[in-house]
Amino acid sequence: MTVGNLQNELTQDIRARSHPYVLIPVDKDTKRRMMMTAEGYSYRLAKQIRDDDRTYTMLDLDVDDVNKKTQIYLRHHPETVASKNEI
After folding, report:
1. Shortest CA distance to 26 belongs to which of 18, 34, 14, 38?
2. Which residues are CB-neighbours of 81 under 8 A, at least 6 positions away?
3. 53 contacts 60 by C-beta, under 8 angstroms
4. Any residues with CB less than 8 A from the CB of 18 and at least 6 apart, and which?
5. Whole-angstrom Cα distance, residue 22 to residue 14?
6. How confident is the model over 53-71, as a mean pLDDT?
7. What are the Cα distances from residue 76, in Å, to 55, 62, 68, 72?
8. 36-59: per-residue pLDDT in tens?
9. pTM for the complete prediction?
10. Where does residue 54 fall: left (phi above 0), alpha (psi -120 to 50 degrees), or beta otherwise?
11. Exposed / middle / buried, residue 41 (Cβ in 10 Å: 0-12, 13-18, 19+)
């Protein structure tokens, strides 16, 4: 069994046993993971987006602007569109 297969099996096992938690990468090494609640992860992600102006740029957009940007993105990345069976 390869390391990748073992990691996938362990990840699936942890997800099955710890439903309210998510596994997130700790740093650039994607094999290092940390468990935290989805709410905690959302908080950390939003805080990083808000506080780190070197990585993210906040734009002043209205709903129409966001819809236009989303449609452009989806045209260029059709694999990201979920099928009706997945929803």
Report:
1. 34
2. 74
3. no
4. 35
5. 9
6. 86
7. 23, 22, 13, 7
8. 888 888 888 888 878 887 777 778
9. 0.42
10. alpha
11. middle
What is the C-alpha separation between 85 and 40, in angstroms, rounded? 29
Dihedrals φ, ψ of 24, to 5°?
-120, 145
The answer to whether 32 and 26 have CB atoms below 8 angstroms apart is: yes
Give me 60's structure tokens: 């002043």
Instruction: Dump strand ranges (E) for the chain.
Output: 21-25, 33-37
R_g (Cα) of the chain, nearest Å: 17
Q: Rounded distance, CA 22 to CA 30, Å?
A: 14
Which of 6, 44, 4 has the alpha carbon at shortest distance from 22?
44
